[in-house]
Design a protein that fits this description.
Znf_CCHC, 6-stranded mixed barrel, metal-binding, 16 helices, 4 domains, 3-stranded antiparallel beta sheet, Transcription factor interactor and regulator CCHC(Zn) family
């Protein structure tokens, strides 16, 4: 009996132990799981808070950028009167339209996704036809998804072709001030310069603008004195105002010296009217119109001491010459001056020396005995050069010095250049220490910019004498001594054929 009771107690104890262990394990798991859940919950809440804060910051930043405004509608966009484009194949007009339409995008806070839709709505005529064909080519869905930068590439390729841009670059290099107002020529200069960024640096802009101006502006403006292009433009405007004032002063002086026929006629009319309509007749003594007795009636004439007339109308008045101070004739009738005039007239009839301007053509240079022409390099650039013994200085054309290798400086004092037919002008600039290559050897030459015809460079006596040049007119050749002491001969053209 006792053994049977012990056998029943073991399973009971085991079952009780299992229950106790299960309860303890359950309590332990519950305690640890509760802490783990709280930790996960806190972590998730922290991440959510960070995301919410970032979203709020992004929203506030977007509002600040847009000024608190929502993207504009098409109606608001059109209210700003955006410019239209008709499809001119002109880079200047094309770029101006792009700049203006982008300005409207910015002012209206237009959404970037609407740029193409709103912008292409301003295309007209040929431009609209081009865009319609482009949409057919790429498809309507691709056209709707196109961004503004993607639109500009084919748009510029069609309306701003490279060939036309190259022509504008050439026009920029050859642009000259020919009487236009400073504002007008500056506008032309700025429009064309947009396409010459690779040719013109910020520093060179001043030089190009200065060289473009006419001589009456250039001689009063020195590029090195100004830091920016804007300062040179303002200086040109001030010079324009001075020139206008000078012209107005000259006109006023001319009117004072030579009154207009209208004024003279009016004066004569007035006198006639005053004589015929109750005005006082002219006095026989003083010549003026007045009533009553003349106050000079009893005043004796200072020449004859008689009364009844004034000195200006005295019958005994003696004419005295202001040249020889002898009575009886005027200076214009003086025998001494008449004799000198006859001698001068006879001298003026003598044969005059032949005048030749610097504007010789290549054909004229071939027949002139004292000039030699040919192609030589100036600062490594090929140029048509004229060696002229009739020129005291050496010159270079304005178009040629646009190359950056030529640096302009001021002459010590302005130089008057006579170009024939008694015409002359003032030059103030010079390109010093230019390099002219002859027979693989470099020669230094100072060149003064001026307007020319077919030749780019004229080499005068200043350079020829420096290198001990001897000109053989009959054979049209120049013998000179190079910097290394070598004897060099330059052959010109004679009758169209080179002299051998």
């Amino acid at each position: 009996m006792a053994d049977g009771g012990d056998d029943d107690a073991v399973p009971r104890v085991t079952e009780q132990m299992r229950v106790v262990i299960a309860e303890e394990v359950g309590k332990a798991i519950e305690n640890s799981l509760s802490g783990f859940t709280d930790k996960i919950q806190n972590t998730v809440l922290s991440i959510v808070d960070e995301r919410i804060k970032k979203l709020e910051d992004d929203t506030n930043l977007a509002k600040e950028k847009s000024g608190g405004r929502k993207p504009c509608s098409y109606k608001e966009f059109m209210a700003c009167k955006p410019p239209v484009y008709n499809g001119e194949v002109d880079p200047i007009v094309c770029q101006l339209w792009l700049s203006d339409i982008e300005g409207v995008f910015e002012r209206t806070h237009c959404d970037e996704n609407d740029y193409v839709a709103y912008g292409t709505g301003q295309l007209r005529d040929q431009a609209k036809d081009w865009w319609d064909n482009k949409k057919k080519e790429i498809g309507s869905e691709a056209a709707k998804a196109m961004i503004w930068e993607e639109f500009q590439t084919p748009f510029l390729k069609h309306h701003s072709p490279k060939a036309v841009i190259n022509r504008i670059k050439e026009e920029f290099m050859q642009l000259r001030h020919k009487g236009e107002s400073i504002d007008k020529i500056t506008g032309m200069f700025m429009d064309k310069m947009k396409f010459c960024d690779e040719l013109v640096t910020n520093e060179e802009q001043k030089i190009y603008y200065h060289n473009m101006l006419s001589a009456e502006y250039r001689e009063f403006i020195t590029p090195s004195k100004y830091e920016t292009l804007t300062e040179i433009i303002n200086a040109a405007r001030e010079r324009e105002i001075e020139l206008k004032k000078s012209i107005e002063r000259g006109k006023r002086r001319a009117q004072e010296v030579n009154p207009s026929p209208t004024k003279k006629a009016r004066t004569n009319e007035t006198v006639k009217k005053s004589d015929t309509k109750g005005g006082s007749p002219s006095c026989k003594i003083c010549g003026k119109g007045h009533k009553g007795e003349c106050r000079f009636k009893d005043k004796p004439c200072p020449i004859c001491r008689k009364t009844g007339h004034m000195a200006i109308s005295c019958p005994e008045k003696v004419t005295v010459c202001y040249n020889c101070y002898r009575p009886g004739h005027k200076r214009s009738e003086c025998p001494e001056l008449v004799g000198k005039k006859d001698v001068q007239d006879s001298k003026s009839e003598a044969p005059k020396a032949k005048e030749r301007s610097f504007q010789l053509t290549a054909a004229e240079a071939k027949v002139e005995p004292d000039v030699v022409s040919g192609i030589f390099t100036i600062n490594s650039i090929p140029a048509r050069v004229l060696f002229d013994t009739g020129a005291n200085k050496s010159f270079i054309s304005y178009g040629f010095i646009r190359h950056p290798s030529f640096v302009l400086t001021k002459l010590p004092m302005p130089l008057e250049v006579e170009i024939g037919n008694n015409k002359s002008f003032i030059v103030c600039d010079v390109c010093e220490n230019c390099k002219m290559s002859i027979d693989d050897e470099e020669y230094t030459i100072d060149l003064i910019p001026m307007s020319m015809g077919e030749f780019q460079v004229i080499v005068g006596m200043d350079w020829l004498s420096r290198y001990h040049a001897k000109v053989v007119c009959f054979r049209k050749e120049i013998n000179l001594t190079s910097p290394s002491g070598k004897q060099v001969t330059i052959y010109g053209e004679k009758g169209g054929n080179p002299v051998l």
